[in-house]
Amino acid sequence: MRLSQYFLPTLKETPAEAQVVSHRLMLRAGMIRQASAGIYNWLPLGYAVLKNIERIVREEQDRVGSQEVLMPTIQSADLWRQSGRYEDYGKEMLRIRDRHDREMLYGPTHEEQITEIFKHGAKSYRDVPQNLYQIQWKFRDEIRPRFGVMRGREFLMKDGYSFDIDYESAMRAYRLMFVTYLRTFARMGLQAIPVEAETGPIGGSTSHEFCVLADTGETEIYCPDDLLKFDVLGSVQNSVEDYGQIFDYVTSQYCRTDDRHEPEEFDRMVPAEKQVQRRGIEVGHIFYFGTKYSEPLDATISTRDGETVPVHMGSYGIGVSRVVGAIIEAFHDDSGIVWPEPVAPFTVGLINVKPSDESCTQAAEDLERRLQEAGVSVLHDDTPESAGAKFAQMDLIGLPWQVIVGPKGVKSGHVELKHRATGERQDVSPDSVVGKLA
Ligand code: ATP
Ligand code: MG
Ligand code: MG
Ligand code: MG
Fold first, then answer.
1. Residue 435 Cα to ligand 3 middle (Å)
2. Residue whose CB lies within 8 A of the most ligand 1 atoms, among 40, 218, 322, for a mutation test
3. At 381, is the secondary structure helix, strand, or coil?
């Protein structure tokens, strides 16, 4: 992509309305533009990141056999009356009437809708286990939308749902999804900490929130240092068969939010020098809730013995659009964003320092073509801006690698390769740039 043709409305000034660094940088880097309070347009650079996050989410869901569906954003109020949540949900739910005066709503989540789908498609123990997910926009009329896409009113969520014959089987689904979430976030460069969120009537923890540590987080987290260092992708073989072992290790650690924190228990389980107390951003949340929806919505299946039982369910959410902000909270410096490579909108920012110089332009275009042929995504700054402005803008948008093509280097047959995260620079030949980045 040539920058001269790319729609990238970056801002020089810091927008006054943005309170947190991720919101400021997303506006400044031309990733999003507010449409109305808590509702955002995703511009090319922002949407490229969002799609990368979606891709990782999909790959990890597919890996454990979850199947993608797409449910409507607009749902019928009747369905929500059956579960009792139409009244309970309160003002966060956006309620709509259609032209026939039918009550509808913009889905804040989809448990009712998926239960309804499952109920008409599954009859017996042979039809389970089943796991379905979607990536779909939600609307919650948040009382205080803030921090940009991190607490929007309209936001993109991956929401998945599991269906099982009994508690044991449902917990297997839960464990798989728990580790899937750890892997999903790790692949985005994030160390997500799973904190116990709720203890169900059956005992044991039946809900975990996945939090990314950042000072701007809204929850206080207590956990051992070991969890911050735990490398899920590098642990054991990491085939789906190993997920149970990873689950057991991680959930044996003390890891709680302030509302469930017990200082004595923390001291007992974690030596003082390993205790961590930090703020966290909730990027995912998983629940086992048993028959909470299947009973009122009458989603039953027959067992092997011919008995009719309500299906056991779990739900699993990732705030896909919130994750974009959370990644920036975790990865930025004074000059701008520093994207982890797997989610970066482009891998390389190629800067032609002097487009008026023919040999420079030739070298830059040549390198762009070669990188593209090698499958490396490139944003090529071919604009007539000053070198200083180009460097500042490239730092701001945070592409992992910069390749700087200038007249002096071209003469002696080399370009400059800069690593955005470390700031390390080296003079290298165009050949070795392609070799290194491909
Ligand atoms: P929060 O505590 O931040 O209000 P929640 O507990 O209400 O979130 P869940 O119902 O657990 O949210 O939804 C699953 C995920 O959706 C959350 O973990 C979060 O990542 C994301 N999410 C929830 N609300 C928002 C929002 N207003 N804007 C962006 N993402 C959101
Ligand atoms: Mg909420
Ligand atoms: Mg929450
Ligand atoms: Mg939650």
1. 45
2. 322
3. strand
Is residue 7 predicted with pLDDT exceeding 90?
A: yes
Q: Looking at residue 200, what is its pLDDT? A: 58
Q: Which CATH class is domain 346-437?
A: alpha beta
What is the per-residue pLDDT across 405-438, written as a single tens digit (0 to 9) for each?
999 999 999 999 999 999 999 999 999 999 999 9
Peptide bond preceding 129 in cis form (omega within 30 of 0):
yes
Query: Is the pLDDT at 198 greater than 90, yes or no?
Result: no
Residue 59 Ramachandran class (φ > 0 left, ψ -120 to 50 alpha, else beta) = alpha
| 3-state per-residue secondary structure call for 14-76 | CCCCCCCHHHHHHHHCCCEEEEECCEEEECHHHHHHHHHHHHHHHHHHHHCCCEECCCCCEEE
Find the mean pLDDT for residues 253-258.
94
Least confidently predicted of 11-20, 65-74, 86-95, 171-180: 11-20
Q: Does 280 contact ligand 1 (Cβ within 6 A)?
A: no
Ligand 3 mean position, distance from CA 258 (Å): 13
- Whether residue 294 is predicted with pLDDT greater than 60 in this model: the reply is yes
Structure tokens that stand for 338 in this block: 């520093």
Q: Can you tell me the distance from the alpha carbon of 123 to that of 299, in angstroms, rounded to the nearest whole number?
A: 9
Domain ranges of the chain: 3-337, 346-437
CATH code: domain 3-337 is: 3.30.930.10
Place of tokens 């954003």: 73
Q: Tell me the CA end-to-end span of the chain in Å, nearest whole number.
A: 17
Please list the helix, strand and coil fractions of the chain in percent, rounded to the nearest 5, in that order: 40, 30, 30
pTM: 0.97
187, two tokens? 């692949």
